[in-house]
Amino acid sequence: MFAGMGESQPFRLALHDAHLAAGAEMTERGGWLMPIHYGDAEAEAAAIAACAGVFDSSHLGRIRVAGDGALDLLERACTADAAAQEDDTALLTAICDEAGTIIDVCFVVRLAKFWVLTTNAAVRPAVLEHLQAIAADVGAKVDDQTFKTSMITVAGPGAMEMLDPLLPHRPSTLARGDVRAGALLLARYIAMRTGSTGLWSIQVMLPNMLIGQAWKFITKKAGESCLPAIGRDAQDALRRRAGVPCPADFAGKDPISAGLAELVDFDHDFLGRDALECNRDKHR
């Protein structure tokens, strides 16, 4: 299970012991202890770029939004237009304060009955507080699932074929931004295709009680489909190579100044819209 080490110490991932057993070097980032590498970051980056690898993404926040006011909340909180989003998709959006400053850039996963926001680890508390403040006005329910669930990411050009036999929904059929929810060993899971490293990738959210079994199977028992574990150093190197922005790139900025104007839909009313419209006019 996830474990906090005290108010001033980082949280531990549910797979913490599994990472140590695999030889991971752990360090604190964003309030969490996470694997930086498993011995050779360059070899890990080469392995995932050549074929595929798996990494623990459980440090990312997973905030569930439901209830009659859920859509109203997301329309207010997100610069992207959640009302135009289709079911079973993941939409990249910025979340801003009233001054238009970015609080986070995250995915909004829309399912038939609820949404899930996958936030950056360090700003999860700020995003949660922001959403809860809006929820109080619109009658939505906000539930932080971060400590109840885990998330693993399988990425690389060979990931699709390796994952197809393992999940009920064949990942190779998913377009970028597609989401599928289903049941695995009687527990619910959510799978979403994204590209956080610039490579083909799929993220799978599972209850904590299943994550150990899933990790062990993917890294040790999947026969020819076994995948190497990839640490944060290799992931960061791949992101830089692909030009994928990291939170430090937009900290303290608004989406226009941060080069993320494509995440803003001015045709709906969201927090920070007036400020962003003024800034957009300045940049024309």
State the CATH architecture of the largest domain.
Answer: 2-Layer Sandwich
Question: Could you state the order of secondary-structure elements as H and E?
Answer: EEHEEHEEHEEEHEEHEEEHHHH
Strand order of the largest sheet: 5-11-14-13-12
Q: Could you give the distance between the termini?
A: 50 Å
Helical content stands at: 25-40%
Number of helices: 9
Indicate the CATH class of the largest domain.
Alpha Beta
Shape: globular
Number of domains: 2
CATH homolog superfamily of the largest domain? Probable tRNA modification gtpase trme, domain 1
What's the number of extended β-strand segments? 14
Largest sheet, described in full?
A: 5 strands, antiparallel
Radius of gyration: 19 Å
Q: Give the quaternary arrangement of the chains.
A: single chain
Strand content: 25-35%
SS class: alpha+beta
Uncertain residue ranges: none
Essential attributes:
284 residues, alpha+beta, Gyrase A, domain 2, Alpha-Beta Plaits, globular
Task: Walk me through the structure.
There is one protein chain. With 284 residues, the protein is α+β, with helices and mostly antiparallel strands. It folds into two domains: 3-60 and 146-242, 2-Layer Sandwich (Gyrase A, domain 2), CATH 3.30.1360; 62-145 and 253-283, Aminomethyltransferase beta-barrel domains (Alpha-Beta Plaits). Helices cover 30% and strands 28% of the residues. It is built from nine helices and 14 strands. The strands form three sheets. Strands 5-11-14-13-12 form a five-stranded antiparallel beta sheet. The longest helix has 15 residues, at 124-138. It is globular. The N and C termini lie far apart (50 Å).
